[in-house]
Design brief:
697 residues, two-stranded antiparallel ribbon, 24 helices
Amino acid sequence: MSSSPRSPHHQWTDITSLIKTTTSGMPLGRMIHSDKFKLFDVMSAIEIMDEKMDPNMIGERVLSIDERFRRNQIDFKLESKMELVKIMDRLLQAEFTWYYGKTLPQTVFTCLYVQAINHIQNPTLKAYCRSVLYMVRDIVALMGKTQVRDEEEFTVNMFGFDVYSEDMEHIVQELKDEETRLKELMQGETDAHEKQWLKALFTRMRFRRVYVQLHSNLSKNSAQLIQNSMIFIKQSQEEFKKMVTQHSELCVDSDSASTTIGFDPEITKRVSSPHPLKPIEMRSFEDTASDMQDYLFHLEFIVSGLKYKDNLLQLMEMFQTFSSLSPSIVARSRMLNVYYHKDKICGLVELPQLVQKMLLALPFLSPSQKRLIEEPDQFEDGEHWIHNVGVCCFFVLHALCLNRGRLRRKLRTLVPEFSHVIQKAEQLDQMCLEMDGRGNSQEILLVFTQFLFDKLLGIMELYLCLGFELELYDTVEFGYVFFYLESISSRRLKNYASVDELNALTKKDKKRGIRKELAAKRKHAIELHATLHQGYSKFMQGIRVANLYETPSSQSRDEDKETPFFIFGSEELRYEHRFAPFNQTHIPQYLPYHVYAQQLDLDNWNDKMKASFSRQSLMQAQHAFTNAAEYCKILTTEHAHLLTKSESTFFSNLSKIVNMNVISCKLLQMLVGRASRSKSVEFAFSVDARYPEIKLK
């Protein structure tokens, strides 16, 4: 035991030998502890003197900024244009590394110039660093407003660093002044090589100025200013494209801190933190360029969607499309902040007003249903119901701005919420129809109920599909997941057919043409998903009966253990666990396990009957996949002008998947009854994260 400091009040005694003797007979994993011992305290402890765990255990002391300044170890004048370009590019890489979950001390604040802005004597570098700090401050404020981040996804902890910067107008003016100065230097420069570096600096300063103005507009709660941001987005895209070209042509090496002046990854060791901060590898410039291009595209998507700000239904569809693009945490926060602030959509309209407008646009409304929407306070619980519909819509918008994991968890709680709103809608529909004296008429529809029912089914479908995207399902669960998806999509198709938008459009409708096309596109998309889910469900039935698919009960057990290999060894238990959120709903009715199991209850069937059933199921799957291919063709040809770029890519990928699945179904039909038990299938999610290619293995 190392020597201990002597205290005038205590006599220290070495008990190392006593502890060794006491614990010599204890098996590994056992521990002697006092009654006050807490496991949390041990898990939170830091191993002292370990360089990986103890941030103060540093082999070589890292100097502070002030110490480096006093020793003239930092060149604050920095005249080299090449080094300035490298610093600017690496700072951009640091920003986007921060966006992907790393801390500010590990990224932006590894730049010593950012930490010592007041000492910088080069006006170009000073203006650029100030603009970086402005963006840091802006994004930290944005994250506080929107609350869409997970702690492990994005951190706003400053670790004691000061991010104070000048106001936006002052920063933009500084950048403009430097643009003017650099432009004059370019005009007077005769050396071609030096002129290239001046041009690279000019491009970066111009990009930064436009980039700051863009985010300043987006942060201001003004719909007009946000719409004007499209100009800055286009300019940013143009200037950044030039930056990428210059980076390549000039062979700028900004990927390494050792070759870039003013960066020290080891500076993180000076940060006082309960969790030791280690130096990290920055994102490469190539990755950062791709990230920036995606980010600017997502901002363009956000601004272009402002035309839907008065249409809640289209707004929700736009949010779902945006979510499917896998935008970064910063882009998702921008989305929510632009479209919902001051408790209003775009800061202009309260949600209940948009709900009323959305419901009034529904087809086949009876006179009393219209009056309920226009004068909800005249009906019992009418105003409260519209408010609740608005709350559910907001929760959907907010959920679609979360990451995929949190989105799925949020949808889990939204299912029962929507179900309660639908129950009330059913009561109000019946009340309105009785007031009109048409309560028993088959021609009158429960419009509110069916509209919200469609939205709920869409949420349930998305919840289950996200399980594939997040790789939550074991292969043995695919059978009943696709079974439930088939049930949901078939209900959705039936519900849609009962209120056919195509038939609801009258000749008096001024936008009848485009609305008819949109309704046809929506119908074909619903039919596509319904046939896809049917195809996969029938396929899983066929291969299970043919012994090409193992269930939990057929999985082998570990003979040395008392527990099954799978934690949820019972298929019924797995089923109930996967669909637990749906068990809390009255509408739609929950499908218990026995409904799924009874279609596969073939205990009394001989091998010939099972083979026949398997071939029939695979034939039905083949037919469904063939129909799905036709729907993909219709959507990518007849409705091509209505598709976004991501939708067009999605349907094209689906077309490849279903064509492969048709071939697999044909081959398996020939193998059924002759294939050995070792023969099996593989589900490949390389083309699409939700719908797999079926391959033989």
